[in-house]
Write a structure and sequence with these properties.
Layout: E1 2-9, H1 16-19, H2 30-34, H3 45-48, E2 53-57, H4 69-77, E3 79-84, H5 89-97, E4 102-104, H6 106-111, E5 117-121, E6 126-129, E7 134-137, H7 143-151, H8 154-168
Parallel strand pairs: 1-2, 2-3, 3-4
Antiparallel strand pairs: 1-5, 5-6, 6-7
Helix pairs in contact: 7-8
Length: 169
């Protein structure tokens, strides 16, 4: 999967309450969560995102609670991928489970600046900053994770697998 887009950059230790403050957790509706994405840091963020753009952050992105609302808000807001120096473990798992590609690439994350354009190839394990003409390497997504993300997340992957199995029998 190749994702190309302008970036929105954030710093270290962006926690799940920054991503989607607890006051907005009275819903699980993605479109409602999207309206408040990053409200703990920048309430204007959802209005500035163009679908397909990329979020970049430094260390420990998604720390805090285990709320799945955070990656749902990011994805529903239109962000196609998150690149960071490191992710909180539970956020990483939640993001993959809902079909949001996230890439650990410390060099790309720390060197990119707001407005740069990145091209992320999850299958090849590359992050190219098209603005600075620099290419970084990262671990490519395993084939299974690529299929899971392409399906739209774990639940959609399982539903599709069940549909295929029922047609075979």
């Amino acid at each position: 999967m190749v994702i190309k887009g302008k970036i929105h950059s954030f710093g270290n230790d962006v926690n799940t309450d920054d991503i989607i403050p607890a006051v907005y957790l009275d819903t699980t509706e993605p479109s409602e969560l999207a309206k408040h994405c990053m409200a703990g840091i920048d309430p204007t963020f959802p209005g500035r995102v163009v679908s397909g753009e990329i979020m970049v952050a430094n260390k420990n992105f998604g720390c805090g609670s285990s709320r799945e609302h955070a990656p749902i808000a990011i994805k529903a807001c239109g962000i196609a991928c998150v690149v960071a120096a490191s992710f909180a473990r539970i956020f990483y798992r939640n993001a993959i489970n809902i079909g949001l590609p996230i890439v650990v690439c410390p060099e790309a994350a720390t060197e990119a600046t707001d407005g740069d354009v990145l091209e992320v190839d999850t299958a090849q394990g590359t992050v190219k900053n098209l603005t600075t003409d620099k290419t970084y390497t990262t671990a490519p997504f395993p084939e299974f994770m690529q299929r899971l993300i392409a399906a739209g997340g774990l639940m959609e992957y399982v539903k599709e697998k069940m549909r295929r199995q029922m047609c075979i029998k």
